[in-house]
Design goal:
The protein is an alpha+beta fold. The chain has 7 helices and 6 strands; from the N terminus they run E-E-H-H-E-H-E-E-H-H-E-H-H. The strands form 2 sheets. The chain has a 4-stranded antiparallel beta sheet with strand order 2-3-6-4. The chain has a two-stranded parallel ribbon with strand order 1-5. The longest helix has 22 residues. It is elongated, with a radius of gyration of 21 Å.
Length: 217
């Protein structure tokens, strides 16, 4: 039976928001040799000013890693970004007919196909047929690199991404926007929400409503 899961995000790098701001402040003040102006509460204003001035090169001095559980379509969009390191679950080497994967395909629940509709029923029927044929080909001795030719965009993939703060801002501005694909919006809005809570100032000016994830592309 096809397994349906919701997308999810996990921040792998431990984040201390205040420590990150202080680190960015120290890097930026080296440009002006104004380290003597550092106070216990000066980092927030410094980083806020950097962003207002568009001096975002300074926030490249901190990067972090996240793990996304998403569909293949999402990571295809995300891998278009530069200055990002990726480690992606490989359908070329993972054989989902094996016991370690539960002998089943795992797919991401689509955010823009409503449950209990004819179109959702067709989507699910297609996923079941693909799984059936995937396993049948595996019985015939086909390798994972052959089996993956059947896999649809809905297949779940674990994606690890590492980027600096400036690149993350760029990614969010593009991938949380209403013009982005709904599945990408869904995942990146989840991550953006977590980062706003974890790191002060840096992402506060990026605002897209949650309703954007419901807009079909």
């Amino acid at each position: 039976m096809v397994k349906i899961v919701a997308p999810s995000v996990e921040i792998i790098t431990p984040l201390d928001g205040e420590a990150i701001l202080k680190h960015l402040e120290l890097c930026a003040r080296n440009c002006y040799k104004s380290e003597d102006k550092i106070t216990p509460d000066s980092a927030r204003m410094m980083v806020k000013k950097l962003l207002e001035l568009g001096h975002e090169a300074m926030i490249e001095h901190y990067n972090f890693t996240v793990k996304l559980t998403c569909d293949i379509g999402v990571y295809k969009d995300l891998t278009r970004h530069r200055h990002v390191s990726f480690a992606i679950e490989s359908t070329r080497y993972c054989n989902y007919s094996k016991g370690k994967f539960g002998n089943e395909l795992t797919v991401i629940k689509p955010c823009h196909i409503k449950e209990n509709t004819p179109e959702y029923a067709l989507w699910f029927k297609t996923m079941q047929l693909i799984e059936q044929n995937y396993n049948a080909m595996a019985v015939l001795g086909c390798r994972p690199d052959q089996l993956r030719m059947l896999l649809p965009h809905s297949i779940k993939a674990d994606v690890i991404m590492t980027a600096n703060l400036r690149e993350w801002r760029h990614i969010f501005k593009l991938r949380c926007a209403p013009a982005a694909h709904p599945s990408v919006q869904e995942v990146m809005n989840m991550l953006l929400s977590q980062l706003k809570a974890a790191i002060p100032v840096v992402f506060d000016d990026i605002n897209y409503g949650e309703d954007s994830t419901k807009t079909a592309a």
